[in-house]
Amino acid sequence: MKFMLIRRADDTTENGALPSQEMLAAMAAYNERMMQAGVLISGSGLRPTSDGCLIRFEHGTPTIIPGPLSPPSERIAGYSVLEAPSLEAAIGWAQQWPIMDADGNVTLELRRYYTLEDFEPGAGLEQHRSHAQVPDAMNVHVAFPGTCREAMQFYADVTGGQLECLLTYAETPAAEHTSPTLHDRIIHASLNLRGRRLMGADMSPEAYTPPQGVQVQLEYQDIEQASSTFARLTEGGKIIMPFEATFWSAGFGMATDRFGIQWMINVSTEHCPLENAGGNP
C-alpha cells in the first residue's frame, strides 16, 4: 500500500526558517532507516506559501491567489511517500518522526493513495487501465563471470543503496541442476536505489558474454556527488568519456568499471537547461 506522510506547516516553516544541521542529520537518519527497510519511495520539503499561490476555479474560471496563505496549520511544509503493507505499519513509521523537529510539536497527516481497484467498473476507469501497459518499474539486470558478489557490494558502497539480496545457487532448487563450481556463486542479487533496482547474477563460463552497448545510468542533482561517484566507479576501470560539462548537463561522464560494467553519470538536466547551454539569459 502506498501512503503520503504529510508534515503540516507552522509559523516557523511559513517564515522560511531552514532546519539546523542537527535537524537535517536527524531527518537524514530517519529517511535512511526507511530506505533500508524499503519503505521510503520519495519525499521533499516545500518552500513557504509566500513563494506559491492558490489557483481557485469558479464556474471554470481560474483566479490566482498569491501567497502567503493562512492559516499555516492547514498548509503543507513537506511530504514523504511510503510503501507499507498496512495502515498500522505506516503509522509505526510516522511515529518515529524525529522528535527534534519543532521540539516535538509537529502535526503529521497520513493518507493512503487510491488504487484502481477502489473504483466502480466503467468507461472512465478503463481509460486509466489502458495505462497499465506501462510497467510499474524498470530495472537493470547485469551478468557477471563470477564476480557478482564483489561487484554488488562495491556498488552498494559507492551509491549508498540497500543491498537487499545476495542469493547463491546453493540456496535454491537450481543447485541440483548446476555444476558444484557454481554453488557459491550468486544466482540473484538486488541493489535497491530509491525503489529502482540494479540486479545481477553470475553466469557459467559457457553462458557468460561481456556486456556491450548498454550502460547503467545514474543521475544526480549535486555535481560534486556525481563527480565523486564517477571517480569511484573508474577505480581500476577505464574512462570512456571524462566527467565534465556538456551542452546538456553541468556534468556527464562515461566509464567501464573493473567488473566490465559500463556506466553513465549525469547531473540532472533541470539544473542545466538546453536553452541556457550557450550562456543565454
Report the count of strand segments: 14
Tell me the overall shape. Answer: globular
Main sheet, how many strands, which sense, barrel?
4 strands, antiparallel
Strand order of the largest sheet: 2-5-1-6
Instruction: Determine the mean pLDDT.
Output: 91
What string, H for helix and E for strand, traces the elements in order? EHHEEEEHEHEHEEEEHEEE
Low-confidence stretches: 271-281
Cα end-to-end separation: 45 Å
What would you call the quaternary organization? single chain
Overview of the structural elements:
The protein is α+β, with helices and mostly antiparallel strands and 281 residues long. It has helices at residues 11-14, 21-36, 87-94, 123-129, 148-159, 223-233; strands at residues 2-8, 40-45, 53-58, 61-66, 76-83, 108-112, 140-144, 162-168, 186-193, 196-202, 216-220, 238-244, 252-256, 262-267. A hairpin with a 2-residue loop joins β3 (53-58) and β4. Residues 271-281 have low confidence and may be disordered. Helix content is 21%, strand content 31%. The strands form 4 sheets. Strands 2-5-1-6 form a 4-stranded antiparallel β-sheet. It has a 4-stranded mixed β-sheet with strand order 7-10-9-8, with helices on one face. Strands 11-14-13-12 form a 4-stranded mixed β-sheet, covered by helices on one side. The protein is globular and about 70 Å long.
